[in-house]
Specification:
This protein is α+β, with helices and mostly antiparallel strands. Among the domains are: 2-130, Rossmann fold; 151-187 and 472-575, Topoisomerase I, domain 2, CATH 1.10.460.10; 196-255 and 392-462, Topoisomerase I, domain 3 (Distorted Sandwich), CATH 2.70.20.10; 262-389, Topoisomerase I, domain 4 (Orthogonal Bundle); 815-873, no CATH class. Helices cover 33% and strands 21% of the residues. It is built from 23 helices and 32 strands. The strands form 9 sheets. It has a 6-stranded antiparallel beta barrel with strand order 7-8-14-13-10-15. A 4-stranded parallel β-sheet has the order 2-1-5-6, with helices on both faces. It has a 4-stranded antiparallel β-sheet with strand order 21-22-23-24, covered by helices on one side. Helix 6 (170-186) packs across helix 14 and helix 8 packs antiparallel against helix 12 (471-481). The longest helix is centred in the N-terminal third of the chain and has 28 residues, at 132-159. It is globular and about 85 Å long. The relative contact order is 0.08.
Length: 925
C-alpha cells in the first residue's frame, strides 16, 4: 500500500479517484507546524536554530498520516509545486521521522501543476527527493520575517504607543501607500485650456478636432493658461475657412498579452471583476483543487501561484485547435506564441495559469458559484486570446487648417482592419477613459476637402494629482520593484487593512494616520529597512538560495549583524526625539498651510501655544505646547476633517445660534462616531446641575449633612483610607445628526427640534399609553410599551401622527409578517386567531403562540377547528421541550448575610496570572 499526502481534503478526494485502491490519500491541512509566536523561536546566537511547534489541530492530522503509514511501503509527498509546498513536505517528513513512523518506508516527493488524471499519474511515475534548496529558501524567509517582526514591533510598542506591528515587506508596502498620499497632498493643480472645434464634411459627417498650432507656433500643454488666452484662440479660429491639409495613415499591429501569472490575475480580477487579491486567490484555489464536472471532480485550472508565462506544449496545441474551430483559420498565427518572463528569478518550471482543458468552455461548466464562474471565464478568455493572431488597426491623423495658417487643428482616431485577439479579450485599464480619443472612429476624408466649421468649445482643465493605489496598481508596483512574491501579495494587503494602517475607499487605498506615523517612525530611525532597493535585493538573495547559489545562513548573518545594531541604537531613544522626528516628517500633513496668513500650528484655545504631535498611553494625538496650563487636545486628524468636534472646514465647533428656551449656545460638532448637535458646554452643564440640586432642596451646607458614625479602632487591623466617591462630571445635552441630514443643511431650528427629542406623538387608542418618537443608535424610531419601529426618514420624527404610528407599530409586532385572514375569537379565551404570511411560509397566530401551516392546507381555506388543533399541537410540543406551557418552580434566592458579619469561609487561592500574549505570527509579517 502507498500513502500520498496533499494539503487539502478537497484535493485528497479528487486524487484518490485517480490513483485507485492501492493508494491512501490523506490531507495535512496546510502547514503542520510553525514557529511559536513568542521571543526566542529563532536564535541568532545559536547559528539561527529554530524551534517549531505543532498545534492541536495539526497534531491530529499528523497522527492520521502516521496511522495510515503502519501498513505502507511508500510515502509520496504531493504538496503544492512551490516553495511553500516544498516546506510543508519537509515539515511532514521531519515530524514523521522524529516519531519513528518511517521505518523501512521509502519517501518521495511528487509535483503536478494541475489536478487532472494524466498530470497526477505522470507525476507519480517520476518522483524525486525533497528539494533542499527550496526548503532553505523557505527557512531563510521565515526566519527573516520572524526576526523583523519580533524585534522591530516591540520597539514600536515602546516608542510609539498605539502601533500594532511592523513587517519586512508589509512596512515597505505601507510606505508606498503613504508616499503616494503625500504626493497628492503636495500637488498644486495647474490650470490649462483646450479648444475643440466640430467640423462637418460635405456628406454631413461630423469630425471633432483639437487646436494644436496657433499663429504658426505649436502649442504646449500650458500655453493656453487661462480664459483670456482661450478666448483669443477662439477669435483666431473664427476668422478662417478650413480644409483638410494632411491625412496620415499608419497601420499598427497589436499583440495579445501573455496568459496570467498570479500578480496579473490579481490585477485583472480587480479591474474587471472588482475582486480583491484575497478573494481572487480563494476562488482560484477552489478552481484548482477541483469541482464537480459531469459527476467527476476535476481541477479546472493549473496551479494559481506562479510567476511564469509559459504554456505546456499540449496546451499550445489545444488552444490552436480550439481557435481554428471556433473562430476560423485566420485567427490562428503561423507559429505558437511562446512567452518568456521579464521578471528576474521567475520559476520557469511552472506554467502560467490556464484552464486544464481549453475545450471545457465557460458556458459548458455548471455547478460553479458566481465568483468561480466569472474567474474561470476570465482565465479561459485570456489564455485563448494569448494564442490568437495580432489585431491590425489603421491609425489615422487628420490635420485641418485655415488658408492663412492662423490655426491648425488635429483629429486622431483608428479603424480596426482585423480584430484578431480583440475579438476575445482586451486588457483592462486602471483608467477606462485613457486612450479613448485615439481609438474613436473618424469619417473618410482626403487632403483638400473643404470642411464647414461648427461650434467652438473652449474647455478649462486642471492637472490631476497621481491616483491613489488600487489593489491592482499596488500589486503591479510591488512586482515592478521586486518586493514580495506572487503568493505574498494578498496577505500583505490584508495585513495592512487588518492593522488599520490603510483603508479601502472607493476601491483605492488611503493611509490612516496611524499608518503614516508608523511609516514616519521607520523612515526616521530604520530607513534602510524600508528602502525599496534593500527589500528587493533581499528578495533576490532568497531566490539565489533556492537556486543553490548562496548559503542561507550567511544571508541571515549579514542581515542580522546590521539590523540588531540598528535596533540597539533605539534603546536610548527618548520620546522627545521621537516626537520631534514625527513633527518634522508629518507637520505639513497635520498642520497644512491654507494660505490664509494664519499659523496652522497656533492653538485655538490659548492663542500663544503651538500645536504638535504628542504620544500618550493609547497612541498619538495633537496637543498644545502650553500644557498643563492649556489642555487643548484633538484626535490625530487633519484640522477641519472633524477633529475635536470640528465641523466641516472649521477648526472647532460650528455655532448655530442660541436656544431660546435656555439661552445656551447650540453648535454642530463632529466626534469619533459622526456629527452631533450640542447644547451649551461642560461649564453650563455643571452650573445647571448645581442650580437643579439647590432648587430641589439638596443639602449644600456642611452642617446639614448627617453626622458620620464614629470609627472603632480594632487592634491589629489595618486602617483603610476611605476614598471619596467619584462624581461624574455633568455633560451637556447632545443628539446625533440623522444619517439622511447633511451637516451643511443643519439650521438652528432643526437643531433645537432634534435637541427636544423624544417627543410625544399621542396616546395609543387601544392601550391609552403614550407613543413617542425619538432618535436612537440606528436612526429615527417610534416607541410604545417596549415595541420599537424604525422610521424611514428623520422628517417623520416631527410630522408623524397617531394613525400612522399605530399602523407602523402593528407591523412591528408581526415582525415583518403580513396578516392574510382573521378567523375570529379562540374558543378558549376569545383572543383573535389570525393567519399570517411569514418569511418561511404561512402560519396561525394566537396570542404569542405561532403554529406553522402545513403545505397541504391553503391559507385561504383554513377553518377555526383546524387552527385550534394546530395551535394545540404546537403548545404540546413546546411544553414538552420546556419552551412554553411549562410551569417552573420559582427560583429561591438565599438571603444575603448581614453586611457587618465577617465571612469565615476560606479564601480561594488566587489563580496564577497568565503571561501576556506575545505578538501573533500574522503581526510579525
Amino acid at each position: 500500500m502507498n500513502v500520498v499526502v496533499v494539503e487539502s481534503p478537497a484535493k485528497a478526494k479528487t486524487i484518490n479517484k485517480y490513483l485507485g485502491k492501492d493508494y491512501v490519500v490523506v490531507a495535512s491541512y496546510g502547514h503542520v507546524r510553525d514557529l511559536p509566536p513568542k521571543d526566542g523561536s529563532v536564535r541568532p546566537d545559536d547559528d539561527f536554530s529554530m524551534s517549531w511547534e505543532v498545534d492541536a489541530g495539526s497534531e491530529k492530522h499528523i497522527r492520521t498520516i502516521a496511522g495510515a503509514l503502519k501498513h505502507a511501503d511508500k510515502l509520496f509527498l504531493a504538496t503544492d509545486p512551490d516553495r511553500e509546498g516544498e516546506a510543508i513536505s519537509w515539515h511532514v517528513f521531519q515530524l514523521l521521522k522524529e516519531r519513528n513512523a518511517l521505518d523501512k518506508i521509502e519517501v518521495k516527493r511528487v509535483v503536478f501543476n494541475e489536478i487532472t488524471k494524466d498530470a497526477v499519474l505522470d507525476a507519480m511515475a517520476h518522483p524525486r527527493d525533497v528539494n533542499r534548496e527550496l526548503v532553505e529558501a523557505y527557512l531563510a524567509r521565515r526566519a527573516l520575517d520572524y526576526l523583523v517582526g519580533f524585534t522591530l514591533s516591540p520597539v514600536l510598542w515602546r516608542k510609539l504607543p498605539g502601533s500594532r506591528s511592523a513587517g519586512r515587506v508589509q512596512s515597505v508596502a505601507l510606505r508606498l501607500v503613504c508616499e503616494r498620499e503625500s504626493e497628492i497632498e503636495r500637488f498644486k493643480p495647474q490650470e490649462y485650456w483646450t479648444v475643440d472645434v466640430e467640423f462637418r464634411t460635405e456628406d454631413g459627417q461630423v469630425l471633432s478636432a483639437r487646436l494644436t498650432h496657433l499663429n504658426g507656433r505649436k502649442l504646449d500643454k500650458f500655453d493656453l493658461k487661462d480664459r483670456e488666452a482661450a478666448d483669443a484662440a477662439v477669435k483666431a479660429i473664427e476668422r478662417g475657412a478650413y480644409k483638410v491639409v494632411k491625412v496620415e495613415r499608419k497601420q499598427q499591429r497589436r499583440s495579445p498579452n501573455p496568459p496570467f501569472t498570479t500578480s496579473t490575475l490579481q490585477q485583472e480580477a480587480s479591474r474587471k471583476l472588482g475582486f480583491g487579491a484575497s478573494r481572487t486567490m480563494r476562488t482560484a484555489q477552489r478552481l484548482y483543487e477541483g469541482v464537480d464536472v459531469g459527476g467527476e471532480t476535476v481541477g479546472l485550472i493549473t496551479y494559481m501561484r506562479t510567476d511564469s508565462v509559459a504554456l505546456a506544449n499540449e496546451a499550445l496545441a489545444a488552444s490552436r485547435r480550439l481557435i481554428g474551430q471556433q473562430f476560423g483559420p485566420n485567427y490562428v498565427p503561423p507559429e505558437p506564441r511562446r512567452y518568456r518572463n521579464t521578471a528576474k528569478n521567475a520559476q520557469e518550471a511552472h506554467e502560467a495559469i490556464r484552464p486544464t482543458d481549453l475545450f471545457r468552455r465557460p458556458q459548458d461548466v455548471r455547478h460553479l458559484d458566481d465568483d468561480q464562474r466569472r474567474l474561470y471565464e476570465l482565465i479561459w478568455l485570456r489564455t485563448v486570446a494569448s494564442q490568437m493572431e495580432n489585431a491590425v488597426l489603421d491609425q489615422v491623423a487628420v490635420d485641418i487648417a485655415d488658408a492663412g495658417g492662423a490655426a491648425t487643428l488635429r483629429a486622431t482616431g483608428s479603424v480596426v482592419l482585423f480584430d484578431g485577439y480583440l475579438r476575445v479579450y482586451q486588457e483592462g485599464r486602471d483608467d477606462p477613459g485613457e486612450d479613448e480619443e485615439s481609438e474613436r472612429r473618424l469619417p473618410q476624408v482626403k487632403e483638400g476637402d473643404d470642411l464647414a466649421r461648427g461650434p467652438i468649445v473652449p474647455e478649462q482643465h486642471f492637472t490631476q494629482p497621481p491616483p491613489r493605489y488600487s489593489e491592482a496598481s499596488l500589486v503591479k508596483r510591488l512586482e515592478e520593484l521586486g518586493i514580495g512574491r506572487p503568493s505574498t501579495y494578498a496577505s500583505i494587503i490584508q495585513v495592512l487593512q487588518d492593522r488599520k494602517y490603510v483603508r479601502l475607499e472607493k476601491a483605492r487605498f488611503i493611509p490612516e494616520d496611524r499608518g503614516r506615523i508608523v511609516t514616519a517612525f521607520l523612515e526616521s530611525f530604520f530607513k534602510r529597512y524600508v528602502e525599496y532597493n534593500f527589500t528587493a535585493d533581499l528578495e533576490n538573495k532568497l531566490d539565489d538560495i533556492s537556486d543553490g547559489h548562496i548559503d542561507w545562513k550567511q544571508v541571515l548573518r549579514d542581515f542580522w549583524n546590521d539590523f540588531s545594531k540598528a535596533v540597539s541604537g533605539t534603546k536610548e531613544l527618548s520620546i522627545t526625539q521621537v516626537i520631534d522626528a514625527l513633527n518634522d516628517e508629518l507637520g505639513p500633513h497635520f498642520f497644512p498651510d491654507h494660505g490664509e496668513g494664519k499659523d496652522p500650528r497656533a492653538c485655538p484655545v490659548c492663542g500663544n501655544g503651538k500645536l504638535g504631535l504628542k504620544l500618550g498611553k493609547f497612541g498619538a494625538f495633537i496637543g498644545c505646547s502650553n500644557y498643563p496650563e492649556c489642555r487643548y487636545t484633538r484626535p490625530l486628524e487633519v484640522a477641519g476633517n472633524g477633529a475635536n468636534g470640528a465641523a466641516p472646514g472649521l477648526e472647532g465647533p460650528k455655532p448655530l445660534g442660541t436656544d431660546a428656551a435656555t439661552g445656551l449656545a447650540v453648535a454642530l460638532r463632529k466626534g469619533p462616531y459622526g456629527y452631533y448637535i450640542q447644547l451649551g458646554d461642560e461649564a453650563s452643564a455643571a452650573a445647571a446641575a448645581a442650580a437643579s440640586a439647590n432648587g430641589n432642596g439638596a443639602a449644600v451646607a456642611h452642617e446639614a449633612a448627617p453626622a458620620a458614625a464614629p470609627e472603632v479602632e480594632v487592634p491589629g487591623a489595618k486602617k483603610k483610607r476611605k476614598k471619596a466617591p467619584k462624581v461624574a462630571a455633568p455633560k451637556p445635552k447632545r443628539v446625533s445628526l440623522p444619517r439622511d441630514v447633511k451637516p451643511d443643511d443643519v439650521s438652528l431650528e432643526l437643531a433645537t427640534r432634534l435637541l427636544a427629542l423624544p417627543r410625544e406623538v399621542g396616546l395609543h387608542p387601544e392601550t391609552g399609553k403614550p407613543i413617542t418618537a425619538g432618535l436612537g443608535r440606528f436612526g429615527p424610531y417610534i416607541k410604545h410599551e417596549g415595541t420599537f419601529k424604525s422610521l424611514p426618514s428623520s422628517d417623520e420624527l416631527f410630522t408623524i401622527g397617531v394613525n400612522r404610528a399605530v399602523d407602523l407599530l402593528a407591523q412591528a409586532k408581526t415582525r415583518g409578517s403580513t396578516a392574510l385572514r382573521e378567523l375570529g375569537p379562540h374558543p378558549a379565551d376569545a383572543q383573535v386567531v389570525r393567519i399570517f404570511k411569514g418569511t418561511y411560509g404561512p402560519y396561525v397566530k394566537h396570542g404569542k403562540l405561532n403554529a406553522t401551516l402545513p403545505k397541504s392546507i391553503a391559507p385561504e381555506s383554513v377553518t377555526m377547528e383546524q387552527a385550534v388543533e394546530l395551535l394545540a399541537q404546537r403548545a404540546a410540543k413546546a411544553g414538552a421541550k420546556g419552551r412554553a406551557g411549562k410551569i417552573r418552580a420559582p427560583k429561591v434566592v438565599a438571603p444575603k448575610a448581614a453586611a457587618t458579619m465577617k465571612s469565615t469561609a476560606p479564601k480561594k487561592t488566587a489563580k496564577a496570572r497568565k503571561p501576556a500574549k506575545s505578538m501573533s505570527e500574522a503581526e510579525a509579517e
